[in-house]
Amino acid sequence: MLAIAGTCLAVVAAVDWLVDPFQQYRLATAPRFYRLHHRWINPGIAKHAAYETALIGSSIMESTPNDVIAGACGGPAVNLSMPAISAAEMRVMLGTVFGAREPRRVIAVLDFNAFAGAPDARQESAGPLPAYLYDRNVLNDLPYLLSATVLRKSISILLRRDDEPFRTDANAPWYWADRMRFGREEVLRGLDLANLNARFRQPARTLPEMRASFEHNILPIVRAHPRTRFDLVWPPYSMLVWMDFAQRRQLDVTLAFKRYVAQSVRDLRNVDIVDLQDHVEVTGNLDLYMDLYHFAPQVDRWLVERACAGLDRVDAANVASYERRLREALLAWRPPATRVAQ
Asked: Best exposed site among 8, 39, 279, 294 by fewest CB in 10 Å?
């Protein structure tokens, strides 16, 4: 019986290794990018794709095609963004990148909520993180090779079955903008302007927690790789997000964290901070958004182009002026007077 069981397991492992549905050992010639398996597929892309620039961020950046990044920054590029990415997961993802190569540039789009909680905290709603796939040790890959989920995907590929939604475009594997609607009406649908966090339920943050997370997850990476250019980007959330921060007494904490980050990297010549949060022509135009946080693909492109063009650079000397402009914009901006009915 043991021999039969061993043989069966060996067959399963061989099938999963040969088909490799999540591209852990080689890039697929006919790839399938399953929406629910970002965290299983991205480490394989990081290891095997050819790129000089890596973009990493949350779902707000997933609709940025690789060729858009390449066109803005020069040379081949890859988008390794994942939904609800935490600072800890960003560290793990970047560890995989640097385990495979030393990219010329990393564009890290930083979400404030990614730094909530303990330094290793992550949002379980995003699904499990198979940490063993993010290293270079193939000896710990048995959970992948013997996984029932992976085997089902392997069989589906061998039988050419479409059991669940997936994309096949390696240039934009996680693109979602074609499935969503953008515009003022969509953003405001069912939204309570007096309690903007009622729908999203984002966690409260404290400055000590955020600082500890940055010091544990981001600062060691940028210090350890002085030959790589890092662009740390504050993304252009809609003005409604800043209203939400003010409602929840998170505004001062958030701006204090931005000042702290500027101070902490001031002596690192390979790090730039790109701040796009006072561009009210974008952040105040709700037609460019699908909700408070997520913007349209043209904003993705605009973000990457400005980062790679060296625009909107913030440092310890001018961070106060950027903060002042953002506070002034928040005071001056007026949200729509009425809520759109569901």
From this structure: 8
Site of tokens 């701040």: 275
Tell me if 203 sits within 8 A of 299, measured CB to CB.
no
Please provide the average confidence, as pLDDT, over all residues in the chain.
92
* Closest to 228 measured CA to CA, from 54, 49, 70, 63: 54
Question: CATH second-level architecture of 41-137+167-332?
Answer: 3-Layer(aba) Sandwich (3.40)
The half-sphere exposure of 36 on its side-chain side, counting CA atoms within 13 A, is: 9
What stretches in the chain show pLDDT beneath 50?
A: 339-342
Q: How far apart are CA 259 and CA 149, in angstroms?
A: 44
- Spatial separation of the C-alpha atoms in residues 115 and 87, rounded to whole Å: 6
Please tell me the distance from the alpha carbon of residue 129 to that of residue 124, in angstroms, as a whole number: 9
Q: What residue ranges do the domains of the chain occupy?
A: 41-137+167-332
193: which residues sit within 8 A by CB, 6+ positions away?
243, 335, 336, 339
Q: Could you give the angle at which helices 239-247 and 251-264 cross, rounded to 10 degrees? A: 110
DSSP of 28-69: -SS--EEGGGHHHHHHHHHHHS--SEEEE-SGGGTT--HHHH
Answer for the pair 80, 315: CB distance below 8 angstroms, yes or no. no
pTM higher than the cut 0.90: yes
